Amino acid sequence: MTDLDTAALPATPARTEQPAPRSQQAVSSGGRIARSLLKHLMLILASIVMIYPLLWLLVSSFRPTEVIFRTPGLWLNELFVQNYSEGWFALGSPFHVYLFNSLVVTVGAVVGNLVSCSLAAYAFARLKFRLRTLWFAIMLVTIMLPIHVIVVPQYIIFNLLGWVNTIIPLVLPKFLATDAFFVFLMVQFIRGIPRELDEAARIDGCGHWQIFTRVMLPLMGPALATSAIFTIIWTWSDFFTPLIYLTDPTKYTVPLALRSFLDATSGSNWGAMFAMSIVTLVPMFLVFLFGQKFLIRGIATTGGK
Amino acid sequence: MSALFELTSLKGSRARTPEEKAARRKEAGRDNLAGYLFLLPWLVGLVVITIGPLIASLYLSFTDYSLIQAPEWTGLENYVRMLEDPRLHNALRVTFIYVVVGTPLQLVVALGIALLLNEGMKGLAFYRSIFYLPSLLGGSVAIALLWRQLFGTDGLVNQLLRLLGVDATIGWVSDPSYALWTIILLHVWTFGSPMVIFLAGLRQIPAMYYEAAAVDGATRWSRFIRITLPLLSPIIFFNLVLQVIGAFQSFTQAFVVSNGTGGPSDSTMFYTLYLYDRGFGNFEMGYAAAMAWLLVVIVGALTAVNFLLSRFWVFYDD
């Protein structure tokens, strides 16, 4: 009786007690290899489908536009770098102006989020004050509130204050912890820090401010990193808010500039547009590369909002 | 877990005796001053950036306001107009198709890949990165522009189809019957972030359940149906709720793929696009505010429906 036979006839092995487990093992390991190969094959196929458009975008950014439209492959015969030099100066301002605008907004947003959200998170996670549960519930609801319902009055207010066409509407809210998702993320993290640490500091005579700056913040590294990375990626690619508040092309952030390629070149200079798309994606890709660990842990523990 | 989960499980423990109540009250206010000081930036933001505008937009929804003259009270006029506005009905239809088709499709793909990746295989980190990357970049204008090319008349998709011998001459993004589907596809392409959540959830299922089932001779399929799905159902549910809320508000992709028009012939006119068009294209701020409130009501209702339905399929293991 071969191993295969016993597997095919599961009803019989009752009598031959000894070989049964061995045969099971042998079959399952053979099956396991086949299964594993099949699985890798499926995953590799899926990976190619997922990543091909991005690779093709990268390669095409080094091709003349007319070649882009007849070359589905990834092979490059020559590096057509003119796309980059043309794209850089195709709009009203050179592209580094937009990169700089985006950088300013992004840095502002990161600083704002880290400061304001960590303060609120410390209060929610550690301090006892009246109505805490109510405020906490409100905070959780605001995470899910559609921004469109507040954007009209917000625009009216910022317009009255004369702040339309400045970066204030893009940055100021971040200093007021309006990205409540990060408050929640940090609360989750602080809950995991042993209370003994801040109680010991309290006994040593530290006030809340000292506990926050000397005990909490140094321990909150991973949560701060995750928040910073998400803020960078969301702010860098945010399109809706700048679209509403920035009308002067010299103040455009990168997404608005990219979009205006459609009007500036009547959407025909794809080579230049692809080149500048790559320029805007590279910073995001780098952040992804180096911050992946924090990103994945962040979504896995908070359930991505 | 999710903020949503936290919200549904919030409850204050009750004090019994008057002494306990008094002690608790004292305890509750222990750090009153410090608490509110730490909370100050958030509180200011809540009032000025969130709740204030929320109330203002409710008021504006009963007015006619174009930014130039003061708002003029018109009662229910905006709401009546919504009932009769065919473009609004179309926008609702388009958005519903997007949400109802795109969200489940994206979640099924995310779950499928997560299951494949979960079995402790080599190269997990590599695959996970590849699948996650698109969900990070997918919201950007660069990717939306790329989509415009991919699904254009001579775009990559048609080029590949021609390689396969198909006479592909359709401009997918310029054809009203296909344009929305290209955006749904873009949505599905960004399945990485729910996939990561599923992977984390799958890790939480104790291995002993599977071992016990294997001893009892359960097949892979019945293990999936009887162990994995029930134990993962709370996570599927929260993914579903959050993705529905998010999908209903999506804006950038449709805006860029259609170059701000919601076209061709309004086939990608998402609800938020139409809202933007009314409010910031035509400066009908009152009407836009009413639309925004309808959005809140719809999203709230969908979430409530999800919660009601969850009783029949979500399983809590405690």
Short synopsis of the structure:
The complex is a heterodimer of chains A (305) and B (318). Chain A has 305 residues and is an all-alpha fold. Chain A folds into two domains: 58 residues, no CATH class; 218 residues, Orthogonal Bundle (MetI-like fold).
Task: Explain the overall architecture.
The complex is a heterodimer of chains A (305) and B (318). By secondary structure, chain A is an all-alpha fold. Helix content of chain A is 72%, strand content 0%. In chain A, helix 6 (132-144) crosses helix 9, helix 10 runs antiparallel to helix 11 (208-219) and helix 12 (221-237) packs antiparallel against helix 15. Chain A contains 15 helices and no strands. The longest helix of chain A has 42 residues, at 19-60. Chain A folds into 2 domains: 3-60, no CATH class; 85-302, MetI-like fold, CATH 1.10.3720.10. Mean pLDDT of chain A is 86; it is low at 1-26. Chain B has 318 residues and is mainly α. Chain B has a single domain, classed as Orthogonal Bundle (MetI-like fold). Chain B has helices spanning 3-8, 18-28, 32-60, 77-84, 86-118, 124-137, 141-150, 156-163, 179-189, 192-204, 207-215, 220-248, 252-257, 271-281, 285-313, and strands spanning 63-64, 72-73. Chain B has a two-stranded antiparallel ribbon with strand order 1-2. In chain B, strand 1 (63-64) and strand 2 form a beta hairpin. In chain B, helix 5 packs antiparallel against helix 12 (220-248), helix 5 (86-118) crosses helix 14 and helix 14 (271-281) packs antiparallel against helix 15. Chain B is flat and about 75 Å long. In chain B, 40% of the residues are buried. The mean pLDDT of chain B is 89. Classes of the chains: A mainly alpha (305), B mainly alpha (318).
